[in-house]
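Hello Y.,

Per our agreement to keep a running log of every chain we model this quarter, I'm adding this entry. I've kept the format consistent with earlier entries: sequence first, then predicted structure.
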Amino acid sequence: MEEMGQFLRRTREDRGLTLEEAAEATKIRRAYLEAIERGDWSALPPAVYARGFVRSYAEFLGLDGNEVLVRAGMSTPPPTPQGPPPDQDEGGPAKANRYRQAIPQVAASVLLLAALAGGYWFLADRDSGPAPSTSEPGGPTALPTRQSATEPPPKPQPPQPDLQVVKRNASQYMVNVGRVDQLEVSLKVERNPCWIDAEADGHSVEQRTLQPGETRTFTGNQEVRIVAGRASSLTVTVNGQPLDPVTSDVLTYTVKKSTS
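Predicted structure for the entry above:
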């Protein structure tokens, strides 16, 4: 890892780039880029997010991100098999026996319900008669009452936020929002834990790992920026409107208030 970090630093310097320029282009904090170039694994977020940072940084420098991960010993481990072990199969003879045992009970319940329904309809038909008239013969027909003129008119609905996706790729998702007083970005973790680094109007708000089922909402006057690891596990809404799902590991959401 340390040798690969030195290689990335030399590559950046050979291209005449500064850490500030790299941080602005990749949306990765300078402290993390410095840790990558030092080979300091302990200063980076959990492994799945660290791999995304290294891949994004390498591709920014014009390198093959996956090859850099392999050479650094950071390639993704094989996925854990999903589903129950074979000895937990619910099929087979036992399941069929349970179905056969339940058939008589189901049949008896259906017959009982049919008998009750027939008795009810018989009694209802015998007791029913012509509906009584609500007005005397030849009398005036009742007119429907008018709606009171004093009722207030319905309140006008507030205008819907105007969302405009200005950029979307493997590492960035940028949205401009119009017709709102305040920006509101909500996250919900669906499947796997997801590390986030959130900023509002240039100030750091929160940096931690969210667990499945957890939700967080961030507000800002001009800009909300969230770096998300394993972004494919997130459902993201902006001022009540959902964004399209993504498949990226590490993604930066940048939401700005539209000036038009």
